[in-house]
Write a structure and sequence with these properties.
Arc Repressor Mutant, subunit A, alpha+beta, 5-stranded antiparallel β-sheet, Beta-Lactamase, 2 domains
Length: 238
């Protein structure tokens, strides 16, 4: 479904604001903080159109809007095809120094990548070294700071989702490179509030590392996709 450039800008802004604040975003707030070239009443009309088309929803307790799975998917697809993606350099590897020089073995590499990616993304990262059949999970402390996990049921659902993800990465085909599952796109029935960005690396022949950035559906997709690209670029010349 096509949306106008103005609607796209409003949707992008709402998603970025909601990712940052975890609070529904109102037309009045957008009108005060951003210049879309239209008045708050017109912003409200555009937001209602985005709601009618399934990109936004209105929680019953608030006049503001939050993104739906469809809204996040539109945002993510637009990021993936954009030539002007965010760039980051926060994984702690020295520029110009190859991964082969940084690490003496693949086991150490996989463990370090999992930990570094968790720290940089403030998400939980699941790392799997296929040939050794070893799984790491890093980033619990930052993950549980998200307001979504104030609910005990959400924590239980997330732990069950992680169990599903462990099985999923182990059965993942070697030809798969990058998968992003948002909310209800997950095949696991209780994963509607979570998202995962999963990708594969082959640091040396016959060795495969799978990494998955996992968190609430309100994750920082722009930043996490940029971090994913940083890792992929580190390995593209190996």
């Amino acid at each position: 479904m096509q949306i106008s450039e103005r609607q796209k800008n409003i949707l992008d802004t709402i998603i970025r604001e909601y990712v940052e604040s975890a609070r529904p975003v109102s037309s009045m707030y957008l009108g005060e903080k951003y210049d879309f070239g239209i008045c708050p009443a017109s912003i409200r009309i555009e937001m209602q159109k985005l709601t009618d088309d399934g990109f936004l929803e209105q929680p019953h307790t608030s006049a503001g809007r939050v993104p739906t799975d469809k809204g996040y998917r539109f945002f993510v697809n637009d990021l993936l095809k954009s030539e002007n993606q965010m760039e980051v350099r926060e994984l702690g590897f020295e520029p110009g120094k190859s991964i082969e020089d940084e690490f003496e073995d693949v086991f150490k590499l996989a463990n370090s990548l999992t930990r570094s990616l968790a720290q940089a993304s403030s998400s939980l990262v699941l790392g799997y070294l296929r040939q050794e059949d070893v799984i790491w999970k890093e980033g619990w402390e930052d993950l549980l700071q998200n307001p979504e996990f104030e609910d005990k049921t959400a924590i239980e659902n997330f732990i069950n989702y992680l169990g599903y993800l462990e099985d999923d990465v182990k059965s993942r085909g070697s030809e798969a490179k990058l998968d992003i599952h948002i909310g209800g796109e997950n095949r696991f029935s209780k994963a509607g509030d979570f998202s995962a960005i999963t990708f594969s690396l082959q640091p040396v022949e016959q060795e495969e590392v799978i990494l998955s950035i996992v968190g609430p559906k309100r994750m920082a997709y722009e930043r996490n996709i940029a971090l994913t690209n940083e890792v992929l670029k580190l390995f593209e010349n190996l």
